[in-house]
Amino acid sequence: MFAPTDFRLLRRRPFRFAPAVLVLSVCAGLLGCQPQYPIPATTAEIETVGILALQARQPEALAKLTQWAQSGSALAQRELGLALSDRPETVGQAVTYLQQAARAGDALAQFTLAQALHDGKLGLAMDDAHAWKWYERSAAQGNGKASFMMARMASHGQGVAQDAKLCAQWLQKASEQGHAQAMYQLSVAYENGDGVPVDLALARYWLSLSAELDYPIAVQALAMQLDGQGGPHSAESEQARLLMKEANDHRLMGWNTHQ
User: Fold this and answer.
1) Which percentage of the chain shows pLDDT scores above 90?
2) Quick count: other Cβ atoms within 10 Å of Cβ 121?
């Protein structure tokens, strides 16, 4: 409760409201207030802001992602980590946010963290055993790229003992998850009996699916198989010709970089 002298003081010096701009300026400058950005309800909105932060380097986009990430949004943590990973001076912060998102169950953050550990990027030491664990978590959520990487690691003995059977199992998983390159390599495995019994029907099946997804090497391999079937004017020969043209077109566009 104010003393009577306090009320007299207030009457002698009436309170005046400062202009809103001045109040906000004092708040931001002295108290560190920041604009409030409510976390969007949709994944697409956060990812759009992530693109603006990564590709356009918009300060407001980074500010939004930072606020959302600090509020606990795993998706924002992942997008902020990806945006910051493109800047050498903030790569340490990027790893921190990617780790937070990965632990929260974000599949892409798990994959990105696994890639960094596998390749020794983002300032992290190469650690295939640790990378394998993050790939496995990402693969469990349907990430075909993660499953394919596990197949490659099993094939080369990275993170786990070299094991053709385990490689084939992860190629199967990645193929079922729609990874075209895995389908092609699974086809080769069935053709040669690498980690699986020889099964030419399954080899042809997975090769055809890979070619349907326009994996260039599969397109060429299927064309070569079809070229040996039927006569020179058969349907198989015509299909082989078209597939070979498609494979050549891919090669001209740099198919060796296709992943």
Assistant:
1) 66
2) 14
Rounded CA separation 151/135 (Å):
10
Determine the length of the chain.
259
CA distance 228 to 193: 22
Confidence of residue 68 (pLDDT cuts 50, 70, 90): very high
Residue 231 has pLDDT above 50, yes or no: no
**Is residue 177 within 8 Å of residue 147, measured between CB atoms?**
yes
Give the list of residues 6+ apart from residue 80 with CB closer than 8 angstroms, or none: 50, 53, 62, 65, 66, 68, 69, 94, 97
In angstroms, rounded to a whole number, what is the distance separating the alpha carbons of residues 200 and 119? 35
Q: Indicate the average pLDDT of the chain.
A: 83
Q: What is the mean pLDDT of residues 19-25?
A: 34
Q: Phi then psi for 225, rounded to 5 degrees?
A: -65, -45
